[in-house]
User: Fold this.
Amino acid sequence: MLQNARAPISFYFDFISPYGYFASTQIEALAARYGRTVDWRPVLIGITVLKIMGLKPLMDTPLKSEYIAHDKPRMAKLLGVPFKEHGLRGHNSVAASRAFLWLKAQDPVLAVRFAHRIYARLWVRGEDFTSAQAVAEEAQALGVDSDKLLAAIETTALKNALKDAVDQAVALGVFGVPFFIADGEPIWGVDRLWMLEQWLRDGSWTGR
Assistant:
């Protein structure tokens, strides 16, 4: 067994990604099967994909957009999870990501529950989550003081915390979501969960 075999799996996610949503429904159970925990880390693909890599959003990319439109509902069926194509434009995850970091600093388990609620709001119910008020609604449903959360996400400290989180992810080579790092091994994409599982099981790419 590897010396660091029980190290947490870093899970980089962005709420606006449907594939991040799909991964969020699988990663905890996968990690638990191998005695791991998951360290959820928000990242903004508007920074990594659009600004740094200079790529268009998937749904604005010719040919690829048609494939993705076909792929998302079938991925949901394969994983057995609910999914709704919302068709929203101009939505972003900045407020939700700041709120996640604020909650994580106090209670990581609660932060993950919040993340699941935000994902469900967008990708199950098809409702926007961009506004601070929408974010506060989901947190309040978990017993969080919405006034404190609303005040926190406007602070310079929390704005810097999200910026630092994105910068740290980029420094590690994270460019899209979902992105996993296990024992230093980077793995991108919900369709590569099988690779993550092999690593967790075997600790190598050639089997036990």
User: Anything to note?
Assistant: The mean pLDDT is 91. Residues 64-79 form the longest helix (16 residues).
